[in-house]
């Protein structure tokens, strides 16, 4: 039996953009998240079915950027242990372990990953009063996973495996052109993080879990009727066995509605490589528009302007 990582789960993702008002309205009024707090222009939004204080934070900035990715830890001791391991390995620490001054509080620290993204790890964050999402209710239950683009994906994957304890679940390839996406887990969900090959470091997409297939399809249809630009879907992936419908938010980031992400055994699961040139490997249902240059272009996103620059909050 192999010990699980000190990181327990994905907490939230923070993004910044010039047009905060339109972005806030998108996530609140169309995507289905609930505003829970704001602090000096930073807005925190929760998923109604999740005990996490918030799953997305939005901040106004002159440039579009990823502010941070936040993960949970089980204890203060684990936070300190991880911080010391990273420091010894030469990882650049942004802030030392201390009280967290955002909704829910807690105790944590921040550091840069190998590509310059800001990563936060925290524990003892107060849980939020959440509720059961009802039948036909097409709003997110929780934050499902986060996918990043890297110009050096093999290096990025190796960094997360070595330093944060993630394990490879599966990967995707394009025939004999080689692998281009790697799915990483820190718990029994098939993936909480994935790394995709791209021309530059950027956000690939942010994914949100819905209650079930009916709610996922209702949410997909609701966004289409509202005129939200669809990128890809609806369909069902082979790797992770989850459904997918990808859309643009108002800053041009890709966001996904999904459901039924696969649970795997931490010790017994063995990774497979799925060739996306085989139609049923990229979409088991055969209902989605093809994965083509249009889809790839928009998922490559704009280069992240926040690398190795800590956000103000």
Automatic annotation (TrEMBL):
Is Metal-binding set as a keyword in this record? yes
The answer, when asked if GTP-binding is one of the entry's keywords, is no
PROSITE patterns noted in UniProt: VOC
Alphabetic keyword roster: Dioxygenase, Metal-binding, Oxidoreductase
Name all VOC domain ranges: 9-124, 142-260
Pfam families in alphabetical order:
Glyoxalase
Q: Which InterPro entries match?
A: Glyas_Bleomycin-R_OHBP_Dase, Glyas_Fos-R_dOase_dom, MMCE/EMCE_epimerase, VOC_core
Biological process GO annotation list? L-methylmalonyl-CoA metabolic process
Q: Which domain of life is it from?
A: Bacteria
Q: Which GO terms describe its molecular function?
A: dioxygenase activity; metal ion binding; methylmalonyl-CoA epimerase activity
Protein name per the record: Catechol-2,3-dioxygenase
């Amino acid at each position: 039996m192999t010990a699980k990582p000190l990181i327990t789960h994905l907490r939230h993702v923070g993004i910044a953009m010039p047009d905060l008002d339109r972005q806030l309205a998108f996530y609140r009024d169309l995507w289905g998240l609930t505003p829970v707090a704001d602090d000096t222009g930073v807005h925190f939004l929760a998923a109604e079915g999740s005990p996490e204080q918030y799953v997305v934070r939005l901040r106004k900035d002159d440039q579009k950027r990823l502010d941070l990715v936040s993960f949970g830890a089980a204890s203060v001791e684990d936070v300190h242990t991880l911080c010391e391991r990273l420091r010894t390995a030469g990882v650049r620490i942004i802030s030392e372990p201390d009280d967290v001054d955002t909704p829910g509080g807690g105790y944590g620290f921040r550091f840069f990953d190998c590509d310059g993204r800001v990563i936060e790890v925290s524990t003892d964050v107060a849980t939020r009063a959440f509720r059961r999402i009802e039948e036909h209710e097409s709003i997110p239950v929780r934050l499902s996973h986060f996918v990043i683009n890297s110009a050096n994906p093999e290096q990025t994957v190796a960094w997360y495996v070595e330093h944060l304890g993630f394990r490879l679940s599966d990967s995707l390839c394009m025939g004999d052109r080689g692998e281009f996406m790697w799915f990483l887990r820190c718990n029994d969900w098939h993936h909480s993080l994935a790394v995709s090959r791209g021309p530059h470091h950027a956000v690939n997409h942010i994914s949100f879990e819905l209650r079930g297939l009916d709610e996922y399809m209702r949410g997909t249809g609701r966004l289409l009727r509202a005129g939200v630009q669809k990128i890809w879907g609806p369909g069902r992936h082979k790797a992770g066995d989850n459904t997918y419908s990808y859309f643009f938010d108002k800053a041009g980031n890709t966001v996904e509605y999904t459901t039924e992400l696969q649970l795997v055994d931490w010790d017994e699961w063995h990774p497979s490589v799925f060739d996306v040139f085989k139609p049923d490997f990229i979409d088991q249902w055969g209902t989605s528009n093809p994965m083509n240059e249009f889809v790839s272009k928009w998922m490559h996103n704009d280069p992240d302007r926040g690398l190795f620059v800590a956000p103000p909050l």
